[in-house]
Design goal:
By secondary structure, this protein is of the alpha+beta class. A four-stranded antiparallel β-sheet has the order 1-2-3-4, with no helix packed on it. It has a domain of 52 residues. It starts with 6 loop residues before the first strand and ends in a 14-residue tail after the last helix. Strand 3 and strand 4 form a beta hairpin. The longest helix is centred in the middle third of the chain and has 13 residues. It is built from two helices and four strands; from the N terminus they run ββββαα.
Length: 107
């Protein structure tokens, strides 16, 4: 069930303001307009609008919750893969190394 039209949710969060170049209290207003939501983020110090976006309102209700539980039931975690025994891992990584020869620099 969507929020009633004209309903406004206001929250504040501490985040970076690009106009003040500092960490400030930012005000997030979500105006519910039927199935759409207008989100406006403003700085409480300089009162400038940092972001203004429109989006689709999230669907909330028993149908949405039932779909989530079905998806969770279908997505079963895969069993963890076994690590290779240490002898096989060492045998694969053990390669013959070329002998290093240093030539002395002439003085």
């Amino acid at each position: 069930m969507n929020k009633r039209p004209g309903h406004v949710e206001v929250t504040t969060e501490v985040n970076y303001c690009s106009f003040c170049d500092r960490v400030r209290n930012l005000r997030r207003e979500e105006h519910h307009l039927g199935t759409l939501v207008r989100t406006v983020i403003t700085c409480e110090t300089c009162h400038r609008t940092l972001s203004s976006t429109m989006g689709v309102a999230p669907v909330e209700g028993p149908a949405g919750e039932a779909a989530k539980t079905e998806v969770e039931a279908e997505a079963k975690p895969e069993p963890a893969k076994r690590a290779l025994p240490a002898t096989k891992a060492k045998a694969a990584s053990a390669k013959p190394k070329a002998a290093k020869t240093r030539s002395a620099k002439p003085k």
